[in-house]
Structure formats: structure tokens, C-alpha cells
Design goal:
Layout: E1 11-14, E2 17-21, H1 24-29, H2 31-38, E3 43-47, E4 50-53, E5 56-64, E6 67-74, E7 77-82, H3 86-101
Antiparallel strand pairs: 1-2, 2-5, 3-4, 4-5, 5-6, 6-7
Length: about 100
């Protein structure tokens, strides 16, 4: 699924629904997965919770009342993944590690 974005600090549109970028307190809740992401070869955290692969944005987070989400660049487009539960975060890490290798 391709996503439209309106720039840093703005809301992103996914299937027509606006989702806010994650807050500082949300990032605090995601700190465990952020630590894991910081250890993935080829990723650089440009600002807290915003990761680049080379010169391109690769991963960032959103939140809404239903939970946390990560937008991950797979091939040319970002794909949104729910990352609220431990299982969802584990899946995110697997996807990110595979994409970083490939």
C-alpha cells in the first residue's frame, strides 16, 4: 500500500484516514523496539524514531487511538505495519532486517 505524506510533524494519509506522527511519549513506549532498530546495519536514526537507509527515509512511526504504526519503505513505497503488541514489533524487526539485507 502506498502512503501519502504531508511532511514532518504533519499527518499522514493511509486509505484516506489521517494518522498523527508519534509523540515523544509514544516513542518512550516504543523505546525497546527503537533500541533494536538502532542495531540494524545500514540504518541511521536521523531524529528519534526516524530511520534512514542511505539517503532515503526508511522507517518512521505514527500513533492513533487504535495503537502504534510503523511506515517502512519496502521497495519504492512505504507500507504501514501495526506495532502495538510485542508480536507486531517482532514482525517489524524481521521485516526491517530482511529489507536492510536486501
Amino acid at each position: 500500500m502506498a502512503l501519502e505524506t504531508a511532511g514532518a510533524g504533519a499527518e499522514a494519509l493511509c486509505d484516506g484516514d489521517a494518522v498523527k506522527h508519534v509523540t515523544a511519549s509514544g516513542l518512550d513506549e516504543l523505546e525497546e523496539v527503537l533500541k533494536e532498530l538502532r542495531g540494524v546495519d545500514g540504518l541511521k536514526e536521523k531524529s528519534r524514531g526516524v530511520f534512514y537507509r542511505g539517503s532515503r527515509a526508511f522507517l518512521h512511526f505514527h500513533e492513533d487511538p487504535s495503537g502504534f504504526y510503523a511506515d517502512v519503505r519496502i521497495d519504492a513505497d512505504f507500507e504501514r505495519m501495526r506495532v502495538t503488541t510485542k508480536a507486531e514489533r517482532k514482525r517489524l524487526l524481521s521485516v526491517v532486517r530482511a529489507a536492510a539485507r536486501g
